[in-house]
Design a protein that fits this description.
- This protein is an all-alpha fold.
- Helices cover about 75% and strands about 0% of the residues.
- The longest helix has 16 residues.
């Protein structure tokens, strides 16, 4: 039970972090790319007040085209307008970027992102390769991330990252993407058991005071069993503002049996208003059957964020465990009104089953199964049990077999009992 709850905590707390919200993979990567090249736009806002009046307006013309023999100022104006309007008017901006690309290689980063948004991987790769050929470090980094995370080609990703590292060590480039590339390269080395190379890069990142590098180095030391060093690195990462560093350190303390230190960390972060820490404490109190303390934590979360659906679900579970099904139903319904998921529907279905409102339960289980995703497997199992209790044995067996094939151990055990009964 404890392991299952730990997995649930890890899953839910990961979803709470804005950087890890579940989206379509390419949309998620698009945001990473945007963050990278937006760093390069900072200078634009520094000069906007001086060139703003010169920048072409989309109001005055449908598309802006470069005139023959454009001046340097013409090119800068068009490029600046495309940058500033890229999000709002992507199609018009793309036409401008197509025109200035021969003069401004930096436009390739925007064109790459345009095609990424369209799901056109071929052109995304093409324009990042173009940027790489023109020594644009952010384009080279984006290419490495693309090969690593979406083409799953570590060899190509390593080649890209190693080239960035080489340029950096030769003093040829300075860019925020460099440290990210070194981080990614160190992680690949670590996965490939190139421990010496990985350690060298992590140490370099620590010297640069790179917070992500320090956080990853802490994990590296922890896996080596060098807990004192890992502890120091986690604390350093916490001081630098890495969101999950305290949680990783607390988990390490728990693995080492230093539970009071782990709890002290969670308490401190909860007092500082960290909803993730509150949620973890709430789950732990719930596992200890401490209704009052668990509910207090979840209520604190809801005071900060009334739409925090997982807190609503957990309060519902607290009431369900106390057999207060009406209160549980109220919280489950509130969560579903904010965000409908298969897991939430299944939870409400269980409460209806326990209240013998089987028609309502059946409807919810079917909806959860149709929706798919997290919770749908439990819905298949629960509907199978519901049918079995109503002597709908063929339908029950079919559903329980389906749940078993999806890895549901309860369904597997129940099928064994059914076979024994039939014998």
């Amino acid at each position: 039970m404890r392991k299952l709850r730990k997995k649930q905590i890890d899953k839910i707390t990961l979803m709470q972090d804005k950087k890890y919200k579940k989206e379509e993979e390419m949309k998620k990567f698009s945001k990473k790319v945007l963050k990278i090249y937006l760093l390069g736009i900072v200078f634009v806002f520094g000069i906007i007040f001086t060139v703003g009046k010169l920048s072409p307006s989309f109001k005055s013309t449908k598309y802006q085209y470069l005139k023959k023999n454009p001046t340097k100022q013409d090119i800068e104006d068009i490029f600046l307008t495309a940058q500033l309007n890229f999000k709002k008017y992507p199609e018009q901006s793309k036409k401008m970027l197509d025109e200035v690309i021969i003069y401004k290689p930096e436009a390739s980063t925007y064109l790459a992102n345009y095609y990424l948004e369209k799901g056109d991987n071929k052109n995304f790769e093409k324009w990042n390769l173009y940027g790489r050929q023109h020594n644009l470090i952010e384009a080279e980094y984006n290419l490495g991330v693309y090969y690593e995370q979406y083409r799953h080609n570590q060899e190509k990703a390593m080649e890209v990252y190693e080239n960035i590292l080489k340029k950096f060590e030769q003093g040829k480039v300075e860019h925020p993407s460099i440290l990210m590339a070194i981080n990614n390269l160190a992680n690949i080395y670590d996965k490939r058991n190139k421990k010496v190379e990985a350690e060298r890069l992590y140490k370099e990142l620590e010297e640069k005071n790179d917070r992500d590098g320090i956080y990853n180095f802490a994990f590296f030391r922890r896996r080596e069993g060098k807990y004192e060093e890992a502890e120091k690195l986690y604390k350093k990462a916490m001081n630098l503002g890495v969101p999950n560093a305290y949680k990783a350190l607390a988990e390490m303390y728990e693995d080492l049996g230093r539970n009071s230190e782990a709890k002290a960390l969670y308490d401190k972060e909860a007092e500082n208003g960290d909803t993730k820490a509150m949620f973890i404490l709430g789950m732990k109190y719930s596992d200890e059957n401490n209704f009052e303390k668990a509910k207090k934590m979840f209520d604190m979360i809801l005071q900060k964020d009334p739409k925090y659906t997982d807190a609503l679900i957990e309060i519902g579970m607290l009431y369900k465990n106390q057999k207060n099904y009406k209160e549980a139903e109220k919280y489950y319904k509130k969560a579903i009104s904010i965000k409908k998921t298969a897991r939430y529907l299944t939870n409400l279905g269980v409460v209806y089953t326990l209240q013998l409102e089987e028609n309502k339960a059946e409807k919810l289980y079917k909806e959860a199964i149709q929706m798919g995703g997290d919770g749908s497997e439990a819905a298949i199992y629960n509907l199978g049990i519901l049918y079995y209790s109503n002597k709908r044995y063929k339908e029950a067996k079919k559903l329980l077999e389906e749940a078993t094939n999806k890895g549901n151990l309860k369904a597997k055990e129940f099928l064994k009992e059914m076979e024994k009964t039939n014998e």
